[in-house]
Amino acid sequence: MMLNPAAVDQAIASRRSVRRFLPAAVPREVIAAILDTAARAPSGTNMQPWRGYVLTGAPRDELCAAVLSVFDSEETGHRQEVQYYPNVFFEPYLSRRRKVGWGLYGLLNIGRGDTAKMHAQHRRNFQFFDAPVGMIFTIHRDLATGSWLDYGMFLENIMIAARGRGLDTCAQAAWTHYHKVIRPMLGLAEEEVVVCGMALGYADRDAPESQLETERAASDQFMSWHGFE
Question: Could you give the domains of the chain?
């Protein structure tokens, strides 16, 4: 069956990490349809290593409040169980990271050295950027690197399936630092490791941070071509 490549490409190309959402509710059946579609992601020997928790209303607000309380206390000792970023950034990754960071801060009028505003913006992670739906994803701690790669395809599918329905997302590694707070509130089993959080909802298109457009390197910059004229 031939699909409409333009529609598929548009869903992929229009995906953004949205950092301000409208309060409009997202029906459970829509979220379920997104997740059921996303679960068609490939995984080694069809292991399907993903597990997750969908929160809205009071449960969402309670989790946000609990994490924000710890975040605001500047309590130490909250670390990821699995490291996401390198200990030292190097090129070209350092320049790309800086460009998107200062691009966002520029839209929000956050200057270099303005640590208070930076802190406040980082704090918004733990409000799911006002999205009405927050999700926390976990993986069994005994699974290996391949399952983490498979997990990325599942998460991408969620984001693309959401775009196909006019919704937006923001995948958030920030939540992984607070797994000690999340674990008892969601009843996570000991073998579950927090992979990320994700905000889901309708983007506030008029917000300054929603104007951020990140760049991507063209395929000729990261692929070597062999056997083509």
Answer: 16-83+124-214 (3.40.109.10)
